[in-house]
Records
---
Amino acid sequence: MHESLILEKRRTQKAEWVLRLPSILYISLMILIPLIVIVQDGFREGISELIHQIRLPIAKHAIVLTLWTSALMTVINAVMGLITAYVFVRFEFPGKRLLNAIVDLPLAIPTLVTGVMLVMLYGPQQTLGRFLSETLGIGVIFAPPGIVIALLFISFPFVVRSIQPVLQDLDQTQERAAATLGASSWQTFWRVVFPALVLPMLNGSLLSFSRAVGEFGSVVVVAGNIPLRTQTAAVYTLGAVESQNRLGASAVSVLLISISFFVLIITNAIQKKMGAK
Amino acid sequence: MKNITKLILILTIALLLVSCSGNTTSQSGDEIRLILGAYTTPREAYGQIIPLFQDYWLSETGQRVSFEESYLGSGAQSRAVVDGFEADIVALSLEADVTRIQDSGLITHDWKAGETEGIVTTSVVSFAVREGNPLNIQDWDDLAQPGVEVVTPNPKMSGGAMWNILAMYGAALRGRVDGVPGDDPVAAEVFLRKVLSNVAVMDKAARDSILTYEKGIGDLAITYENEVLVGRQSGQKYERVIPTSTILIENPIAIVDANVDKHGTREVAEAFLDFVFTVQAQEIFAQHGLRVVNQQAAEASKGLYPDIPDLFTVDYFGGWEVIMDDIFGEEGVYTQAILQVQRGE
Amino acid sequence: MDQGKKGFGAWLLILLVVLYMGFLIVAPIVSLIQGAFQEGLSPVFRSLSSAALFQALALSLKIALGVVLIQLIFGTMLAWVIVRQDFWGKSLLNGLLDIPFAISPVVVGYMLLLLFGRNGILFPLLERFGIRIAFAVPGMFIATLFVSLPFMIREMIPVIENLDRQQEYAATTLGANQWAIFWRIIFPQIRTALVYGMTLTLARALGEFGAVLVIGGGVQGRTETTTLFIFRSLDERRFTEAYTASILLGAFSVTIVYLADAIKRRQKKKEEIKDLQASLSFKS
């Protein structure tokens, strides 16, 4: 009895490797090796040189610009995503189905197309663009606001779709209890509903942040790419690659990858916590 | 439902198999393929020259030559070739981009040996101004005026942009800019900084820059004369203003030895190289906004291309090596200037 | 569903959302369509008959479909291994899966350049076999494979987690072999997720830009995808062509995602009905 169980276990283990080996190979080849190559290239001349490259004024500015526009976008996206999810789950109104479907559009539209569309809408020769720049003095295209808008567009679904299912499944007895006890809808929301949504909101926000930091297709069309003014890290990297500034490209890439890693770790932890609940 | 899924899977595989067919080109006796890696500016010109060459080659040798063309920013194209893009012929914006390919070992002959030292077309740095020239931009000093918005591409990303910087800095050094004493590097750098502080957008390539200008950004664009003319040919309403002192942009063309030998295309590549210097081809360049090296064609197009009072070349600075270090290096004049400009704001 | 009194506050919020989404998402799309047809219908139709556009579309499709196929096989395999197996390094594997999502496409292209470019690490080896990867379609294929990696896997993992293992055990005891178990028990349960994953992968692959820009070389007719075509058309002042291609690409991607979404929703409804029936029959 015991022996056959051991044999069975060994056979299953061997069988497992039939799928496991190709899987591991696939990931190693596709992800691990390129990552290792670029990290190794970034550190090629030592960590001090890498830091020097990142601290070069144009590079540093690009990184800072990327981080703050992504952060600003994330905050706006979190708030609007929360409101949007709430509106979709809790209210009924004409056109809701259509609107709900539109939420996913940014996921399907290629980022380059997004950039093209935004230039069409906000370019100085268009009515809206001219109104904004001449009447209100706000430059959208070729200025940071344009970057933030592009990032908002591409990241819109993340927070909404993170919160929606959780809100949908939320048990409303507590809310009703609070209402009976005389709490206003505002209080009810903040103290009963919101706490349950914090984790999904964070999850979606972090996702949109990490996505935004690396965004290229829409930003390169919309931003104007002026070094030290509207050039993001991804565009800087492209410039470095095209001018054969290998070390610069690798250094900034390594930094961007590290940021992504960091955010991903936090996101994973959040997802685990969400799963445990 | 189940059927639909199966259908999708089968369709996928089928489409893939179908589309996998017919992608290899034969290098047989009567068909040969030439790969051209060029910068963006002469795209339209080559669009016309290549069919002419194809006809010529067919009648001369009975061989059909097909072209694969890639047009990128000069620097981008150069690094692409170095990185493995197997162009048989490169036609780039500046000598340094060809030298880079030569330094990588892909070009082994002296490409500058010919009559024109490897230069197939030229242009000059000039301005594109709005229709009617409302701000009355006439020369370099107008660019340093406060409140004037300028667009020019980014020298770190574009060969065309380097020409622009060299033109303005050179003109200043040569004493041809009003208000800037000649032979005074400090004064010239101050002038450079003034202009740079007026820059609204710095695109990654010359073509991008003029397109940005067309979208309404900026009062003027510093660009190649060629870009202004090609833009006007496609219906743009801006006007060309040539400063009194400017740099001669010399565009090289060269065969990439390693690739032609690998592809077995040396003969047809050399023929193409000869072809672009013929009157026929040069006239096409002239029709597309480029100044030409062929005397006859140049004479014929004199009306389009006025003489420049003070025309200088990279030799004024001591050649590209000096330029890459002293002007565009980490401590170079331009690098320092742009840093100061942006920090000052 | 809270059907209670919809006060002023509620309508304000709804208005806010409608305005926000209108400005952020709908307005640009309308602009694009408007811009494309600015000069009438015939320029658009002319663009549609452009050979270069056709070649670009064909290349985009070719690469994307190939990517979908590979992700289908390997993605499902990976998801299976992650859910059903336990081994050292599994959490590392799991963590790595999300990386492509967060890495800038430019960096992806650059990484591949470091590997496959003329000065790249793998270049000498590939040269010996005459294999061209950088500045050729294989390089663009690999780049697209990289960026679309997470989509299929992330779709499949939850579905595989929810598989009914009772059925599998039952089938094993009855003597069914692995293949039969897969096709007749597992596959029906995962096929909706498969379709959805394939669709997301397809949409992502078609829209890839930054990575193929770096590794591709942009040779018209050879290494030019639809996105690169759009980029080049903007450069050449062929705006109608650029906008038309953008609309084509966008419309196609949006359509397939919505179709897949519809399939998913229908599946969900089916399951809800099944659950309802099950609970009812249990009660009776």
---
Amino acid sequence: MEEKVLAILAALNPDVDFTAETNLIDDDILDSFDIITLVGELNDTFKLDIGPQHLLPENFNSVTAIINLIKKLQAEG
Amino acid sequence: MSLTSPVFFLFLIITLFVYFTVPGRYQWLVLLVASYLFYAVAGIKLIFFLLLTTVTTYFAGLLLSRWKNKTRKKWLLAAVLLFNFGLLAFLKYYNFAIAGLNLILAPAGFALPSFSLLLPLGISFYTFQSAGYLIDLYRGKYQAETNPAKFALFVSFFPQIIQGPISRFDQLAPQLTAPHALDFDQLKYGIQLMLWGYFKKIIIADRAVVVVNTVLDNFTSHSGSIIAFAVFFYCLQIYCDFSGGIDIVRGTAQMLGINLRENFRRPYFATSLADFWRRWHISLGDWMRDYLFFPLSLAKPFYKLGKRTRKLFPGKLGKIIPTSLASFIVFFTIGIWHGANLKYIAFGIYNGLLISFAIVIEPYMKNFLQKVQINPQGPFWQIIQIISTNFLVFIGRYFTRAASLGAALQMLKKTFFFFQASAINSGALLDLGLTKLDYLLVLCGSLIILGVGFAQEKGTSIRKTLEQKNWAFQWALVMVTLFVLVVFGIYRQGFIASEFIYQQF
């Protein structure tokens, strides 16, 4: 799962080392356009339904946070 | 009660005294009474509208927290949002709409009456804040406030109701109801922030406005260069007026022990138009992003459109078409919110187009910079970006300041095709309502703001730097600022501090 998420993130911005960043939103590394593209890709890849209510900085600040969100949504079915 | 009036200072001193005298558990009640008193001064009848929004939002909030059925919740949310935004739209746009309708009805001999509607103080700001609260409850972000009086305080908190910042319930409400002991540091920081705000407003904005109004209210008799000069002053005016007002609001709240969010982050250091809007009126931008842009972009029609455009246009363009469309709608909404006038719609389209264009050309720009060996993070390119962003913002300001879209276009035409640089000379400038001393004050004041902004951009905390100085220096600085405000703020004959621009929204 982590590899897939990293590949999606790398397509957004190849210059960022996403494994090391923990403030992707708070430091404006990902802007709102990136977030929408990211959510679209995550929804398609993992068959999720990420909605506006999930778009909180704490869910997207790091790769770990994104994976946790995916796992949570998958568990909720 | 204007933030620059002596009555406000008296009101603030009394509020502070009572607030820090009563037991902590009653402090929020002092704030509630003060907030409603503050509001009543603006117009006692207007409290009706404030109460209408407070009551509908309060009850809808309780139901949204209790109900489990998603469809029911959705309908309730839609109804209450429609009611409150409908009220805002009615009060704001009724006469504009009636004038339009009457034009259509005139040949048939009908005419609908227009009313002189006084817009309730801060209606946009408390409506946005209340709507945000309801949408958060719908999304299950937190539980509803059950105490109606505490909720009423969240909607009406007196310094911020005038012109924001638009706060979030989970950040503001707990601070409003918590007990606050008198803290001299907070008091000091609050006073410093307020003085900084008054400095921007009284020394710069209230001077710049003279040139702006003299030239732009009668732009046909001025050359392009003088118009450009006045629009540049308008940029100064609107920044110092709005951000200065917000500093006063935040400083007032800080004296009460309440931290309100930042609304400006040195926008004139932005390196792109998108960056500018992330630094300007941040609380409105965040509101639009969370409650309009995100839901729109993730809505099914946009999602489907995205799939189609990605097939049609592989690469960046295909990906950003639906998101750009959503951002267009956001800018359009912000434009309409500023006023029922074509010039604001044009302003929205102008920004939306440029931001989308910048995203599309970004990869090409990167390649270009690589080819010509310019470091995109280096100071040279950063300065180029800052200058070009400010230029784009400057052009955009023609739309917001002009009386109409037609006037804005004529002003632009004069600037670009009839510039006449020779028209800018000391004689002409001194004919615009300001003296040499006034110009000097605007220049020095702007340089101070620029210097402070530059230091903050480099990561320096002005507050911490001041803390390291001895108390005599800190005290002297406060006194000098006060002296400057009193002497240069009031010395001009017939000087009356003007109303804050964003108060009218």
